[in-house]
Amino acid sequence: MREHRYYSAEEGHGCLYELAATYIKGGERVLDLCCGAGYGCEILLRKASVYMGVDYDPECIAWAREHHPLGLFACVDLCEDPLPLLGQVIDFFTWIEGIEHLARIDLVLREISRVAKPGAPLLLSTPSRSWRNPQHKHEYSLKELLNLFPRAINLGIHGRFESQVILWRVQP
């Protein structure tokens, strides 16, 4: 097994999960797309009744299960696999620093639409293009994000990666 250094939410994307938590009304079921090692689990569970995180990396998911026992985690390749959920069960989505790693956004959006309750919010962030990363499939401008997510609200720039953040209501 290769060695990983999983960082805490405070060291990485914590402020983005804190921002997302402000949009959770309370008692909702949250799906964290590209959850990594479950960085947002405890933050989001302060308000959510159920936290589920999905990521393609089995080692990240194993680490998340061990360190965040209150969360539910599944290993899912969002560009190839369906989400392991029935339709219209998710109240709120987070997609923190993950969209830029995926090639088939159309497939992911189809699955989000399938599992979302009507009008469920999705809070999405992607790092500034100034944070070049060879693992990114595409680095998105604000204009590109707003084209992908019609009627999204621009929440501005947040966090140490100067991330562009939008809030979008899932369309049926």
Describe this structure in a few short sentences.
With 172 residues, the protein is α/β, with parallel strands linked by helices. Helices cover 24% and strands 23% of the residues. It has a single domain (14-148), classed as 3-Layer(aba) Sandwich (Rossmann fold), CATH 3.40.50.150.
Radius of gyration: 15 Å
What structural class do you assign from the helix and strand content? alpha/beta
Shape: globular
For the largest sheet, list the strands in their spatial order: 3-2-1-4-5-7-6
The number of helical elements comes to 5
Order of helices and strands: HEHEHEEHEHEE
Beta content: 15-25%
User: What's the helical proportion of residues?
Assistant: 10-25%
Provide the CATH superfamily: Vaccinia Virus protein VP39
Largest sheet: 7 strands, mixed
CATH topology: Rossmann fold
The low-confidence parts are: 1-9
N- to C-terminal distance: 41 Å
Multimerization state: single chain
Q: Kindly state the number of beta strands.
A: 7
Instruction: Please tell me the total number of domains.
Output: 1
Q: What top-tier CATH class fits best? A: Alpha Beta
Mean pLDDT: 88
Architecture, CATH level 2? 3-Layer(aba) Sandwich
